[in-house]
């Protein structure tokens, strides 16, 4: 489970990126040659947000989570209370009856339950802290998410006019790099799907080892998980390496591109950057909130 979680988190941390690319006004800047209308990549982002349910979906998920969190907190509190009572009762009876009280010690009987309780307490504490971060991110990108949720025609009326321009000699290579970014994202979707669907069957492996008299559970688990997840972990590492190279090259080419366009800092450019960041925030929050709902 930890191997799967680590690899999935690595992908998740890098998939809404390259955030540096969004921060440098790409790919919209390559498409925004006229200084008017809505760039094609932003049209796609707008359509994706609307199709996903838009801002109303996020608000609904945010409203539902506190009730789900409270219900799970109440269940965990009651479980912890019962475990404490069982431990206290066992200790009292053991002190009262001494050696006559021969029942298995409470900590051995309930060890697994206590460990699971501690694990879920940590998860719930983390979820409580994450709630603040979710609200902060929604607040930061609220205006952009509202614009994207309103649809393309409404978005077009809100975007400021700009000067446009092709960007000169850097344009073609930057376009190639943007295509590589899209390829990278598609590859990651496949890797993440494989990570989530991979569930190594360990029972037969353990039974075979036990029958052969060589059951060392930890060693067998590590070897089996290595065979199953090793190739996927290599793909994750390779994907992140490719991304870092793309970002480095984009950063090298971006300033020449902007200078050949006539400079940066226009209100239109700022609006396009803000909308791209709002799209990334929407997709990240939607995924996290839906995963939270499934968990509860």
Could you characterize what this model shows?
It is built from 13 helices and no strands. By secondary structure, it is mostly helical. The radius of gyration is 26 Å and the shape is elongated.
Features:
296 residues; mainly alpha; 13 helices
The succession of helices and strands, N to C, reads: HHHHHHHHHHHHH
User: How much of the sequence is in beta strands?
Assistant: under 5%
Helix tally equals 13
Q: What is the alpha-carbon Rg in Å?
A: 26 Å
Q: What structural class should be given to the helix and strand makeup? A: mainly alpha
Q: Cα distance, first to last residue? A: 18 Å
What is the average of the pLDDT values? 79
Unreliable stretches (pLDDT < 50, length at least 5) are none
| Sheet of most strands | none
Helix content: over 70%
Quantity of strands, as a count: 0
Shape: elongated
Give the SSE map.
Elements: H1 2-15, H2 19-23, H3 28-31, H4 40-52, H5 54-97, H6 106-109, H7 111-140, H8 142-149, H9 152-158, H10 171-197, H11 203-211, H12 217-261, H13 267-295
